[in-house]
Amino acid sequence: MSTFCNKILLLDFLSMKDTSYLLKMLMNVVGCTMVGKPDVIIPSPTIGFDIDTTHFNGNHASFASVEACYSPKNDPKHGDYTEVALDPTSQHFFSIRESSSFTHVRLNIYPDGGVARFRVYGTVSVQWPQDLATLIDLAYLGHGSKVVACSNQHYARADNLLLPGRGIDMSDGWETRRSREINHSDWVIVKLGVSGFLDHAEIDTAFYKGNFPESALLEACYSDLEIPNENSTWVTVLERSKLSAHKQHLFQLSCTDKKFSHVWLTIFPDGGLKRLQIFGRRQLPSSTSLQSPSIISQTSPEIVLTAEPLTYESFAPYGHVIASFKEPSVSPFMTSITCNLRITFANQGTARNIITLHRLSILGKLTLYQKMIRVQ
């Protein structure tokens, strides 16, 4: 069991109810990360599996086998297999001798029955951009990053911080238990997929509207160890900064000329975060790409404009935008917490009437009006 402790959980079938979600997990999280075209798949060296029959006591699958293959073009061909016996309501860990790269795995159960979870452990084979100075998310799970330590993950696992997208609800973020201690804080240490020069960070509190942390602090260090020891020197790259509910927070990091391998995120006092993204470069841009001092001195001062992603929160003072993720709090005849939308059904449930409340400022006066939109 300890064999898998420092390896990335490549694949975890969380629910057999939604096959589209499983496909998304398969194609976006792990050994089947989608890059560019849908038929391009990244292989991953696999070291073991966990076939979990928790809560299936008497109706569990009696035997199982796992097949794996390498098929970048998404047309897997399966070969021979060997059956193994399973026990009721138990975890079954299996390792493989050779650390080969695979793109697909298939779980077979005999003759029938239930399996609670199927987990695949290993490391990610990353296809890095050719340009070392390309800005990438160094903390993305698909780039080989991993959570190596955390203070608490009572409600939701810290590994969720490294997943792509903004998730579906609070269950797929990182949430710690409440604390009433004075000056309490929780923390998580992330080993970056590759050492690099940090540029900026994004801390997302999507769906955490009453249980988000008050503030956050980011530190970084360089270490060859999986988990930095007490001799490691941590540098503050982001001072303690205020956080808000259900929002993407962009922060410019300091010490951008130093190379780091780990980041330490501390939240105050506790709560939940959806995602942590650390953008940086594997190598600083070449100095030859910069203009010479003589040319710079002859030109006018350069005006720098900072572009930020268009989110509902940033556009809220001017009106409403449609978020890029589902709003699960919306139910019939109720109001959406995020977008202030009132939804009613029409045409026997085949269409939805979405009533939005817009704000316009005319000659300095705030005017409210309603607009009805029919969504087929």
Describe this structure in words.
InterPro entries: Allantoicase (IPR005164), Allantoicase_dom (IPR015908), Galactose-bd-like_sf (IPR008979), Ureidoglycolate_lyase_dom_sf (IPR024060). This is Galactose-binding domain-like protein. Residues 48-124, 144-282 form the Allantoicase domain. The protein starts with 7 loop residues before the first strand and ends with a strand. Residues 1-8, 10-42, 288-298, 324-339 and 356-376 have low confidence and may be disordered. The radius of gyration is 24 Å and the shape is globular. Strands 9, 10, 12, 13, 14, 15, 16 and 18 form an 8-stranded antiparallel sheet that branches. Strands 1, 2, 5, 6 and 8 form a 5-stranded antiparallel sheet that branches. A hairpin with a 4-residue loop joins strand 19 and strand 20 (351-362). It is mainly beta. Helix content is 5%, strand content 37%. It folds into 3 domains: 2-122, Sandwich (Jelly Rolls), CATH 2.60.120; 136-284, Sandwich (Jelly Rolls); 316-375, no CATH class. The chain contains 3 helices and 21 strands. The longest helix is centred in the first third of the chain and has 10 residues, at 19-28.
